[in-house]
Write a structure and sequence with these properties.
This is Tetratricopeptide repeat protein. By secondary structure, the protein is an alpha+beta fold. It is built from 16 helices and 39 strands.
Length: 800
């Protein structure tokens, strides 16, 4: 059993104070103790959050008035002088000019090409609105960001005061990192962007962001919002304000229609628009309000933009019919009164917004290479669709600066949207992630954009992708575990990886990494149950099967008596995740054998390129989606299927003349490699590693239909619900000699073609089930992915 208190204080010694917070909280899941609060207090103190540190030390004393360390820490905090707040000189050093932003340095304006990165808030174990990141962590990240080669970072909303303090300290200490301050806006009720309550909320969000940047804000504690005293002026290090988010087409369409789609003009103090739709006029007024407020209160104003994306772009996309049209072409009638989130039914054209004075306006878009489908379908002959789309966008905007405020690909195990060049939404190891990101940024530069902001800095576990979110349940526990399958959780250059202080196993043949694993089965020395006497019996002799887990994966280690040669020995591992009374019992590959319990999954280990994980047919999400039943039914028919996911549904062009096929990817193939970056076979997406007599497996929880390992929930869709609590994972193993004909077993001449089994003879009473305790505070560690270095090399070739 892990000693979390010892682990937490070890983390403090290593300087991993942000990670230590989760470790001490994990310790408190078992029992509150004075020592755990001392550890929390020391972590917060080192991170720079003195008020919270003081609270923690007093909590320790409440539990144990004789706690010496807590007493010393309280005395130390009481003796600290209140630091003087550094003053600031409010300055606006940026402006939107022709084609690019410009920066004023030493009295001269020069071009500033944005090489930015997006920074989120959701550390493992938290949603963004909990604001878990503490000051010293920001300082560490800022240094790593500048070493990467970025010159700016974008945040989506106001962060706590410690962010602005850290940014001011970093730049005043010689750093050079400029801020794009986001202003987050939730969509209005009933899509009324001019509703009285929504406008009041919008203007409050704008004022609070400007005041926080200029260091004159005091926010009380509010649910889901930052609070505290903002006293550091970072206006000299601020490049621009970024208003809003990706607006849903339904909301914009409904708003325009509610105002009769009247085309109008509007002239403000700083911006104006002619021939704008109701939404475009509203967007212009928002941005003008921000600049007017900043100018009137602080004497200058920064450039401003409002976010857009391809779904609302002003370009024509003949390949993208609506959802309703696509169904009608197939003879299916739908309710046209229901608004579906179609990708090309509405436009928002920021090119119409013109600067009158002040910091100016620039356009910004989130543009990924794989979404929407029209990026790859509009011109089937185009071999560079991403660059072509950017060029069309730039041509439309003319000399107005255009910043691609989000782009990038994730390093997830599964692709969740197809792209023509292979730049899918996921399915890339971290080296490929860096290479593709570099090519995307180069395209952004080459077409004359004003810059790009990579998404994103670190992996955020709370996020969910449309392919997998129906199976990450309960949703409110999503931050508690990591899903390598989910592309949305894997965009970062900084990995937030399960376990502390490092990976539980590196898939590198290191037996020391399995010392704390649970041994499920172990057999004494001797040969296999069935011998061929061909010199390869030791490789088919099963010695030991062990299991362990962390917040992201279920791990298995299968050990044999002799070195493994997949030409002479194959293996089957059966997994029961839901209960012995359900699932498939007949094993695949012609072994003519039955499992002693119902199985949900079978892993066939046959070497690189042929190994796969199969699911029983009734438990496959792809085949049973929409039936109302995804649960392993009892069967002895051997109905094992490959696991797949559909990433792109079939599309039909607007005129009905062209069909674009659906895209389906397999999830079943097992990838061989090591997670140790020092090895030549390193692959961040490795599932399996073979070394001598050891086969190590890393299986994402989601691949096993575990919807939340932290509360032990397994997928089970029936009229009663969508999940059930699992009692653990039972595992059995068998070996066989491959026949060389397909994937079938060689005949033993006996009833079964298995050569050895764990447990011996598949005795029902001997089957072991791996069980684990739940958690609410995940352990994790961070490290820079290989994509960091690859992308850094690409940025070095792009001039600012």
């Amino acid at each position: 059993m892990t000693d979390y208190l010892h682990l937490g204080f070890s983390a403090l010694q290593r300087g991993d104070c942000q990670e230590a917070l989760n470790i001490f909280r994990r310790a408190q899941e078992g029992q509150l103790s004075a020592r755990s609060f001392v550890g929390l207090g020391e972590a917060w103190y080192r991170l720079g959050d003195l008020p919270t540190a003081r609270w923690a030390f007093h909590k320790a004393l409440a539990l144990d008035p004789a706690e010496r360390d807590a007493t010393r820490w309280v005395a130390r905090l009481d003796s600290l002088a209140v630091p003087l707040v550094k003053g600031g000189q409010r300055r606006c050093r940026f402006r939107a000019a022709t084609d690019f932003l410009q920066l004023n340095e030493q009295g001269r304006w020069r071009r500033f090409f944005v090489k930015g990165i997006n920074l989120g808030l959701g550390l493992p174990g938290y949603f963004p609105g909990e604001y878990p990141i503490v000051g010293a962590t920001y300082r560490t990240w800022f240094k790593q960001m500048e070493e990467l080669g970025v010159n700016s970072l974008r945040i989506y909303a106001v962060h706590p005061p410690s962010f602005y303090e850290a940014l001011a300290d970093y730049n005043e200490g010689g750093g050079r990192l400029f801020l794009f301050q986001g202003i987050w806006l939730e969509p209005p009720e009933q899509n009324d962007f001019r509703g009285t309550h929504f406008l009041a909320y919008l203007r409050r969000q704008i004022r609070e962001a400007v005041d926080a940047v200029c260091g004159v804000a005091d926010f009380p504690e509010r649910p889901g919002m930052p609070h505290g005293a903002y006293r550091r002026d970072v206006s000299p290090y601020t490049a621009a304000f970024v208003v809003g988010r990706e607006w849903e087409s339904c909301a914009v369409k409904a708003f325009n229609e509610s105002h009769g789609r009247r085309i109008g003009s509007w002239r403000g103090s700083f911006l104006e628009i002619a021939d704008g739709s109701p939404f475009e006029v509203w967007a212009t007024e928002c941005c003008d309000y921000l600049q007017d407020y900043e100018q009137s209160r602080f004497g200058c104003c920064h450039p401003v933009t409002i976010i857009n994306w391809p779904t609302l772009d002003p370009l024509a996309h003949p390949s993208e019919s609506t959802y309703e049209q696509g169904l009608r072409w197939q003879g299916i009638e739908v309710d046209s009164g229901t608004c579906s989130e179609n990708e090309d039914v509405e436009s928002f054209d920021p090119a119409k917004i013109v600067t009158r004075q002040g910091g100016g306006f620039f356009a910004s878009y989130h543009v990924y290479p794989y979404y929407p489908d029209f990026l790859n379908n509009d011109d089937p002959t185009d071999h560079h669709p991403y660059r072509s789309y950017l060029q069309r966008l730039k041509d439309h905007h003319g000399r107005q600066p255009v910043v691609i405020a989000e782009f990038g690909v994730p390093s997830s195990r599964e692709p969740t949207h197809w792209q023509k060049n292979g730049w899918h939404h996921g399915g890339h190891n971290d080296a490929a992630q860096g290479e593709i990101n570099g090519r995307l940024m180069t395209d952004i530069r080459d077409v004359g954009m004003a810059g790009g902001m990579l998404f994103s800095w670190f992996d955020e576990w709370f996020k969910r992708n449309w392919v997998f979110y129906p199976y990450e349940l309960p949703a409110d526990r999503n931050p508690c575990w990591f899903n390598l399958q989910d592309a949305e959780q894997c965009y970062g250059l900084l990995a937030a990886y399960p376990g502390y202080p490092g990976k539980l196993t590196n898939l590198a043949g290191n037996r020391d990494e399995w010392r704390s694993a649970e041994v499920l089965y172990e057999q004494p020395a001797g040969g296999p149950a069935v011998a061929f006497n061909d010199g390869n019996d030791p490789a088919r002799t099963l010695r030991r099967l062990s299991a362990q887990h962390d917040e992201g994966f279920f791990y298995l280690l299968l050990e044999t008596a002799g070195p493994i040669d997949f030409r002479r020995s194959n293996f089957l591992l059966g997994l029961d995740t839901c209960g012995a009374a359900t699932g498939e019992t007949r094993l695949p590959c012609g072994v003519n054998a039955w499992s002693p319990l119902g199985l949900s999954f079978v892993i066939h280990l046959a070497g690189e390129g042929q190994s796969r994980i199969l699911v029983c047919r009734s438990y496959d999400k792809y085949l049973n989606e929409g039936t109302g039943a995804v649960a392993p039914r009892r069967s002895d028919l051997g109905e094992w299927v490959m696991m797949q996911n559909i990433t792109n549904h079939r599309r039909i062009s607007k005129d009905g003349s062209r069909f674009y096929p659906a895209r389906v990817f397999s999830m079943s193939g097992l990838r061989f490699g090591s997670l140790d970056p020092r090895r030549s076979d390193y692959d961040s997406l490795a599932d399996c590693h073979v070394s001598g007599t050891m086969i190590e497996l890393r299986l994402p929880w989601g691949l096993l239909n575990i919807t939340d390992p932290s509360s032990r929930q397994a997928l089970w869709i029936d009229p009663a619900g969508k999940t059930r609590t699992t009692t653990g994972i039972a595992v059995i193993a068998g070996s066989f000699s491959p026949s060389g004909k397909g994937l079938q077993a060689r005949t033993t001449g006996l009833e079964s073609n298995l050569t050895d089994t764990l447990p011996s003879g598949f005795g029902v009473s001997a089957v072991r089930r791996y069980q684990w305790a739940g958690w609410s505070h995940p352990l994790y560690h961070t490290y820079l992915k290989r994509s960091y270095d690859v992308y850094r090399a690409a940025l070095a070739l792009i001039a600012e």
